[in-house]
Design a protein that fits this description.
It is built from 13 helices and no strands. It has helices at residues 24-28, 30-45, 54-73, 83-110, 112-117, 124-131, 133-150, 162-186, 190-203, 216-222, 226-239, 246-271, 274-277. The chain is globular.
Length: 278
């Protein structure tokens, strides 16, 4: 007689309190996470005329517009860096962050059929939505390096700080997605208001202007925007000019920890109603 094939048993149980986040389930379903990331990339580039070129065109056109308006017409200071490079180094992390927030905030509704019919830790969905835009970031970052070579600026060893900074941006996007995703399940207004909020947030971040033009007495309040520390740190790592704003980075880290912890609890509590409401 042949032994019976081994079976994988999945136990679905109620929560055991507010802090029962069941993060171990995400690790057990890590292969599904990879599948969802690859699916997002295939859907994005499948039957696209330019394919991965869209990852380059979006930040490049933004930089061209910003360079004409803010660099040439307004004469915005750029801290000794050619303005196209200065703007590119701000647009690059921001474009990733904005896209990750958009996807993670609306992903549950976009994949409503998957949520209704298949069991898996729902936390995997915003995680996949935050990871997949990193491919676009890496493609566009190569363009930034080429542009730096054109202007005769060589990166230093500080460029190694960029991966940790992008982890900070990813965690911020994830924490926001954990709040917006469940809210979007109940109130579909989120998909309409999110682009508007992201646009306002962009101009409240030092993308087209340096942090130095913000009055010193307002900089502590301005640094409550977690992307301030990320963007300023990114420019410091790329161009090796000045010193990183450790105050902004510390405030960014503290705010992200609070948002992420609260978002995990909120997402977990709302998760039980997703399939019924969506």
């Amino acid at each position: 007689m042949h032994p019976a094939p081994s079976q994988v048993i999945t136990e679905i149980r109620p929560d055991r309190g507010w802090l029962d986040l069941d993060l171990g389930a995400v690790w057990r379903y890590r292969e599904l996470l990879g599948v969802l990331v690859m699916r997002d990339l295939q859907v994005l580039y499948k039957q696209a005329l330019l394919g991965a070129g869209w990852a380059i065109l979006q930040p490049v056109f933004a930089v061209i517009i910003f360079s004409i308006i803010f660099g040439y017409i307004v004469k915005m200071p750029s801290e000794g860096v050619p303005y196209p490079l200065f703007a590119f180094a701000g647009v690059l992390p921001w474009t990733y962050f904005a896209e990750a927030v958009r996807r993670s905030g609306t992903g549950l509704v976009t994949d409503a059929e998957l949520v209704r019919k298949v069991y898996f830790p729902r936390l995997i969905m915003p995680l996949a939505n935050v990871i997949s835009p990193l491919v676009d970031f890496c493609i566009a970052f190569v363009v930034l390096l080429v542009l730096m070579a054109f202007y005769g600026i060589a990166p230093s060893w500080k460029i190694l700080v960029i991966p940790p900074l992008m982890v900070v941006a990813a965690l911020l996007a994830l924490s926001i997605g954990l709040w917006l995703g469940p809210i979007n399940v109940r109130f579909r207004d989120i998909k309409h208001t999110l682009p508007f909020l992201i646009q306002i947030w962009m101009y409240a971040s030092p993308i087209v202007y340096p942090l130095s033009i913000v009055p010193r007495e307002w900089q502590a309040i301005y640094a409550l925007n977690p992307m301030v520390g990320v963007i300023e740190g990114f420019r410091w790592a790329v161009f090796d000019r000045g010193e990183p704003n450790f105050t902004a980075l510390a405030m960014s880290g503290a705010i992200i920890v609070l948002l992420l912890a609260g978002g995990l609890v909120f997402f977990r509590r709302m998760e039980r109603t997703f399939a019924d409401v969506i």
